[in-house]
Design goal:
It contains 15 helices and seven strands. Helices cover 56% and strands 10% of the residues. The protein has a seven-stranded mixed β-sheet with strand order 1-2-4-5-6-3-7. It folds into three domains: 3-52, no CATH class; 63-240, Rossmann fold (3-Layer(aba) Sandwich); 246-317. It is α/β, with parallel strands linked by helices. The chain binds adenosine-5'-diphosphate and magnesium ion (MG).
């Protein structure tokens, strides 16, 4: 595309609020810049569109809290490539992202993109991060349902707040994130079953069913077994995010080490000491090593810092 075409396209996309198109134009600018070996500009642009989720202006204009506090807006920072995912999961999620990006093509053939995902796995292995990455890839905001605002001691009130939330979200292109989905979609045959609880679950399921496909519903749960079966069936994509194996921890540490000066001990040593940890725990420990090391300069010994921190972690886990 000629330069002036790109510029026109960019301005038009901005004016019509068409983020999809905006993203595509910026991506083609990045590709052009790379071809010309202008890597600094290309990197900077890439950074800008990945941290955005929305343009800088949109970020300042859009309130962080919407619809009476029922939804919290998160600016997505992570991209898919930043996450350690199994090949299977990465492929599955990329497919959904592609279906969303190219939904016009699907629609001309009478098809809709998939948009209801359920993420399952123990804490700290990427459920929230994956929802964020999907939003970042699609350059749409991530709206997180706030249970504090949603759940009232009057169940009837909860049902109507849920209805309001779904109503609000329908007209927006976004990732709608329900964390700990089991808290709200409890099995209907549960002990505390009352007609009211049934109504809450029904209004939840109704809301889910009626969501248009430009709202990407992502739900997360550590306890899929307590999920209402009818709720589980609604999801077109089921993703499991298990805790990493020792080898996966090793690869994760290796990747982190490649960004800086390493951690004074081998990735294998860290992996061996941290077997059974979540990605989040590994990441925290690596940051901890760096922090202690930096603050101990000029005398700090990276290897000793790492060993001390690993020892402390093992002790705390016992
Ligand atoms: N699969 C992963 N790849 C890379 N980093 C991860 C992964 N899982 C977790 N992390 C790191 O741990 C932090 C917490 O993970 P999070 O996505 O909040 O987990 P969950 O929602 O499953 O509890 C993230 O911010 C991220 O830095
Ligand atoms: Mg989470």
């Amino acid at each position: 595309m000629a330069r002036s075409d790109l510029l026109l396209n960019l301005v038009e996309a901005e004016r019509s609020g068409d983020r999809q198109r905006f993203l595509m134009v910026v991506e083609s600018v990045i590709a052009e810049e790379r071809k010309k070996q202008h890597h600094l500009v290309a990197d900077r642009l890439e950074e800008l569109i990945s941290t955005a989720g929305s343009s800088a202006t949109a970020r300042y204009q859009s309130p962080p809290v919407t619809q009476d506090g029922l939804l919290l807006e998160v600016v997505p920072r992570r991209r898919l490539a930043d996450l350690a995912l199994s090949t299977e999961t990465a492929t599955l999620v990329s497919e959904v992202v592609e279906e969303q990006r190219r939904r016009d093509v699907l629609r001309t053939h009478g098809l809709e993109p998939r948009h209801r995902l359920m993420l399952v796995g123990p804490p700290g292995n990427g459920k929230t991060s994956l929802a964020e990455a999907i939003a970042a890839e699609l350059m749409v905001p991530m709206l997180v349902a706030s249970y504090e605002a949603l759940i009232s001691s009057y169940l009837g009130e909860t049902a109507s707040r849920l209805a309001a939330l779904f109503e609000y979200v329908r007209s927006r292109e976004c990732v709608l994130f329900f964390d700990e989905f089991d808290t709200i979609a409890k099995e209907r045959a549960d002990d505390h079953d009352t007609g009211e609880l049934k109504r809450v679950v029904s209004s939840l399921l109704l809301g889910v069913d009626r969501l248009p496909s430009h709202v990407i519903l992502v739900t997360a749960s550590n306890h899929p077994e307590v999920l209402d079966r009818a709720a589980g069936r609604r999801f077109q994509v089921h993703v499991t995010l298990p805790a990493p194996t020792q080898a996966q921890i090793g690869r994760f540490v290796e990747r982190q080490a490649a960004r800086g000066h390493g951690f004074g001990v081998t990735p294998e040593t860290i992996a061996r000491n941290m077997a059974g940890a979540s990605y989040s725990e590994v990441e925290d420990l690596l940051l901890d090593i760096r922090r202690r090391y930096v603050l101990g300069l000029p005398d700090a010994d990276l290897k000793r810092t790492a060993q001390e921190r690993l020892g402390r972690w093992r002790k705390q886990k016992q």
